[in-house]
Every structure is written in C-alpha cells, then in structure tokens.
Amino acid sequence: MNRIIKGFRFGVACVCVLNFFGCGTSQPSHFYLLRAVSPDSVSGLAEANPSSLSFGLGPVTLPKYLDRPQIVTKSSAHEVDLAEFHKWAEPLSDNVSHVLSENLSALLSTDRIAQYPWPGSTPLDYQITVDVLQFDGTMGGEAVLVARWSLSRDDEKTVITTKKTRVTHHPTSQDYEALVEAMSQNLEDLSREIAEVIKALPPRISPRSSS
User: Fold this and answer.
1) pTM score, two decimals?
2) Which of 126, 150, 180, 207 ranks highest by number of CB atoms within 10 Å?
3) Could you state, in order of their start, the residue ranges of all structural domains in the chain?
C-alpha cells in the first residue's frame, strides 16, 4: 500500500512539474507586416498626371538567413537571434516585394507595375531588380537595409544604372513593433531613391502609349 501511495504522489508531482513548465511556454505569438508608404506622405512628390509607362518589379531577392517566419535580429557582428514569439505574417520576401510595389506605385503615380514573375507577353518600359543584402536590426540599436538594385530598359535588355543603397533608422522603442516600423521606413527610403532616379530620366514616350 505504501508503495502505491508513494507512486501516486510521484506521479502527481511529475504532472505538476510538467504543467509548470508548460505554462512557461504558452506565451502567445505576435505576427507583423511591413507597411507601405502613406499616400498623404507623397503628396506633391509624385507626378501630377498618371504615368503612361509600365514597370516590372523583380526579381526581389533576400538573403537565405531571412527565409524563415521568425523575425531575425543581430546580437553581435557574427550572431543572430530568432524571435520565437514574434513572426512575419507572410513570407518576408513576398512582403518586401509587395511593399516596394505599393511604394513605387505611389511615388511614381502609376498603377502599371507588374510584380515578378510576370507573363512573357507583359509589355514593360522599365524593369527594376532588387537584391537585398541585409535587412535586419538590433534591439535597442538600429534597423539596417542594404540592397543592390538596377534599373533597365525593356525587360533587362539595356541596363541604365546599378546602385548599392544603405539606409538605417533607429526604432523609437525596444520592441518588435518599433523595429518593424523602422524596417518599413528603410524600405520607404529605398523606394524614394529608386523613384527619384526614374523621374530624373529623360522623357520617354512608351511605344504602346503612342499606338
């Protein structure tokens, strides 16, 4: 009988211990999306009339270390941290591509932006390719975006320019919401640089618009 009682007590103790540790890992997950530029913030910067030119955005590539649902931050020059309970609501590469497309649409005053991959028959005047080299940050530090991008004419047949852009923003607080907002601001800065280069090009009439 004593053995039965001792075994029962041991079993109850194990269940209590498991419940204790189980409660410690029940923290709810939080999911985030990068935001596109607000139309109000580009008022007066975009062209007054909608552009007749068409653009292709992509491919937009990100480093493999970012190909995961967890938000990645840097804890040192060589070490990264994966946020167990703070994740992207969609694949980060898709989110970045969508935000860049929305930003450029607002900044260039056009809805004629196709995202890669587009059908081979899609008419394009310019193609924008973006290779993101770094897109992360440090908690309590800064958010960093480094990207090499190029602008070409007629579906990559003639490269007009290739540039490497590095932008940073400091989160307003030491939490993931502020970090994601700073990352969105970095994407906005990159979008503005690309748009300014496009708007500085000599006027070009699309063959499709004159037909």
Assistant:
1) 0.82
2) 126
3) 32-210
